[in-house]
Structures are given as C-alpha cells and as structure tokens.
Amino acid sequence: xxxxxxxxxxxxxxxxxxxxxxxxxxxxxxxxxxxxxxxxxxxxxxxxxxxxxxxxxxxxxxxxxxxxxxxxxxxxxxxxxxxxxxxxxxxxxxxxxxxxxxxxxxxxxxxxxxxxxxxxxxxxxxxxxxxxxxxxxxxxxxxxxxxxxxxxxxxxxxxxxxxxxxxxxxxxxxxxxxxxxxxxxxxxxxxxxxxxxxxxxxxxxxxxxxxxxxxxxxxxxxxxxxxxxxxxxxxxxxxxxxxxxxxxxxxxxxxxxxxxxxxxxxxxxxxxxxxxxxxxxxxxxxxxxxxxxxxx
Length: 296
Known about the structure:
Blueprint: H1 3-17, E1 29-30, E2 39-42, E3 44-46, E4 50-57, E5 60-67, E6 75-77, H2 78-84, E7 89-95, E8 98-112, E9 115-125, H3 128-134, E10 140-142, H4 144-147, E11 152-155, E12 160-163, E13 173-174, E14 183-188, E15 191-197, E16 204-206, E17 218-227, E18 230-239, E19 242-244, E20 247-248, E21 252-257, E22 269-271, E23 278-284, E24 289-294
Parallel strand pairs: 5-10, 6-9, 15-22, 16-21
Antiparallel strand pairs: 1-9, 2-12, 3-4, 4-5, 4-8, 6-10, 7-8, 8-9, 11-12, 11-23, 13-24, 14-15, 14-19, 16-22, 17-18, 18-21, 19-20, 23-24
C-alpha cells in the first residue's frame, strides 16, 4: 500500500474513534462584537480534504489544528501540552479496532476565529504521525466541543471557514443528532443509513451491522490500513446509488470497515465531506440542518 493510502485512513479512523466525551466545560463563546456579522478564517487544505487552521492554544499563538467535526473532544499533541506545562491523568480512548491510553487535562483557553473556549477539557496524545505523514507540523485536533459555539460554512474552493448564521434553503438536510456528534441520514443502495458528518474522514466509510446491502455492492479490492491502535481491513466498493437529501451521487466509491459496536453506537458510517465532491458544507446549529453544495 502506498504511503498516501495509509495516511488518509489514519485520519478517518482517528476522527471516529475520539467519541469518548470529556467532562462538562465552560461553554465556548463568541468573541466577535455584536453586529459585526460573519467572520471569515482561512485554512490550508491537505490531501484534498483535510482542513488545517491556526488557533491560539493557551499562551501559544499560531498553533496548527486539524478541524474535525467527527471528534467530540479537542486533542493536543504531547509536545504542546509540555510547552504549556499541562498535567493530566491517564484515560482510555475507544477506537474502532482497539483502545488507546491517553491523558486528559484542562486547557486554560483556546481561540479559533470568533470562538473562545475557557477551561477546556482536552485529550493529550502523541500526534507526531500526523506531522510525519503530512509533512507539516500538526499541534492538535479541534472538535465540535469548540466548533459548536457558532454555525459555520466550509468553502473548499475558497479555502475558508465562515463563522456566523447560515441562510437555510429547502435543500438542507436535517440533523439526526446534534452536538456532540452531528449525524444525517444518507440513502445508500436504497437503504437509509445514519452517518457521522466528518471533515476528518477521507471519504465515505460504512460500518454495516449486517451484510445484505453491502453484498450487493461490487467489491473492487481489499486494503490493510493503520491507525494509532493497530491495523484493520477495509473493502473498497463501488456504489451505484448514493443520495443525501435531493443530491444524488451515482457511482460513488466507499469503504466497508468492520467495527466494534461500542466504538460506533449511534451511526453506521462516516461521511467524509471534503473528499466526496462537495464544494461547500454548512453546519447550521440554529436550525439543526446541514447545507451542502456539490462541485460543478
């Protein structure tokens, strides 16, 4: 397997496995002045789907964080935690193919665009493999524990996130669940599946509890990939009918992955929006809806 193939599925597995929520925090707040309108923050797009944005982490400015809507709790690299003098206690993280021991700590503050979170519970883990695989420094992963403070629109073409109200349209897809995890219903081969909306995933990943619908898909090949807890097998399949609301995506590639039920209790797969041919996606927390625009 090529390095690229290994790397993209490391990201996919990290995003879904960080579903162990930490204890309650001071709710993140907006720090832009009332009436200023939307706030636009640029980002770097890696591998065509992975969003890296700068934020102030504690007393450190310009930290590079992966934006991952499939993560319930923010994660800091151990080197950043050491620079900030953060302590911590041992904790266990549930992954798709095993468990990983990490530390938990309290971060004094995190500011990303117009959002500030105070006394933020975070995981502390070794994220050095991100830096190695991506060829650029990665200091952490910011999840919906912070991002949920504001509705926001991701524009993959302009490479910017616009924080602020979203203009709802009839094409919007309702959330099946809201923060700490956002899921929507997608129809795949005629079957309705609840999928986690995940900016950190490299495509469409499916975790079928039964195999009847998956067996109708054409298996192209099998891959062995790696995450921070070890190896796992995924089957590449070609789907003939994928629908999200009124949007139809014929002949779409997906990956079927066997998982442990306790790792994915409330959803049946990941919708990696950045790698699925979508130009824009908006998380509308006021109306509990997802807006998507395909690339033309």
